[in-house]
Amino acid sequence: NAGVMQNPRHLVRRRGQEARLRCSPMKGHSHVYWYRQLPEEGLKFMVYLQKENIIDESGMPKERFSAEFPKEGPSILRIQQVVRGDSAAYFCASSSGTGGNQPQHFGDGTRLSIL
Amino acid sequence: KNEVEQSPQNLTAQEGEFITINCSYSVGISALHWLQQHPGGGIVSLFMLSSGKKKHGRLIATINIQEKHSSLHITASHPRDSAVYICAAPYSGGGADGLTFGKGTHLIIQP
Predict the structure, then answer these.
(1) Closest Cα in chain B to A39
(2) A42 interaction partners in chain B (CB closer than 8 Å)
(3) Furthest C-alpha separation in chain A
(4) What whole-number distance in Å separates Cα of residue B88 and Cα of residue A84?
(5) Which among B31, B15, B22, B47 is positioned nearest to B105, based on CA atoms?
(6) Which of A101, A102, A110, A112 to mutate to test the interface with B (most CBs of B within 10 A)?
(7) Shortest Cα distance, chain B CAs vs residue A56, angstroms
(8) Residue B20 C-alpha from the chain's centroid
(9) How close are the terminal C-alpha atoms of chain A, in Å?
(10) What does the pLDDT read at residue B95?
(11) Secondary structure (3-state) at B14
């Protein structure tokens, strides 16, 4: 019973390139959350998705960032034209989202470094 | 939007000591989360609680909904408990919301 799987664990990009971060939720989970942890800072909510729908993207920068959770396959967080300030750890969490409060299970994160 | 405050930010204690970490939040919530993050960065969910008290091994979490306050206790602390402990509440209070996080408590247990 695999947990939340994120890949890659580490990603290095040069300024201006695109970064694609993947998250496969736990089996049976249809709710996915993306969080960002900047160096020496706390975790911050970015976006909440259910299958094929963005429910809340209020924490995501308006430009260059997008997220999707297609009917088939993992959730993808995409960062276009990366800048040094995008260097951070990006965590994905999933929950079943049914029956009221459900715990969120976290992946091990993707550490993004921008050269 | 919920605001989450944690204290202390840093805590160093001797092995065996009883540890308390406090958390307060601003918006009424359906449940509060306690998380643990080890060096190397993985995040583990310790507790999700909406009332009263929960216990898991040497860890105890309590919540007072009326006062919007929660505490995490560690009994008989051990060096392997050294980690960052993070309190989190739903962004807008609802059960399926994304979470907003406290800044974390950096705990070091010395042998």
Answers:
(1) B41
(2) 86, 101-104
(3) 44
(4) 28
(5) B22
(6) A101
(7) 8
(8) 9
(9) 36
(10) 58
(11) strand
Under a CB-based contact definition with an 8 Å cutoff, are residues A101 and B30 in contact? Answer: yes
How many angstroms separate the CA atoms of A26 and A32, rounded? Answer: 10
Contacts (Cβ under 8 Å, ≥6 apart) of B31 = A101, B48, B49, B50, B90, B95
Number of C-beta neighbours around residue B55 at 10 A: 12
DSSP A102: -
pLDDT tens, per residue, chain A with 115 residues: 579 999 999 999 999 999 999 999 999 899 999 999 998 888 999 999 998 899 989 899 999 999 999 999 999 999 999 999 999 999 999 998 755 578 899 999 999 999 9
Which is nearest to B33 in space by CA: B72, B100, B74, B89?
A: B89
**B96/A27 Cα distance (integer angstroms):** 17
CA angle A37, A38, A43 (to 5 degrees): 30
The structure tokens listed for A71 are 């009917």
Name which of B30, B43, B96 is nearest A91 (Cβ-Cβ): B43
For residue B90, the SS3 value is strand
CA distance B55 to B69: 17
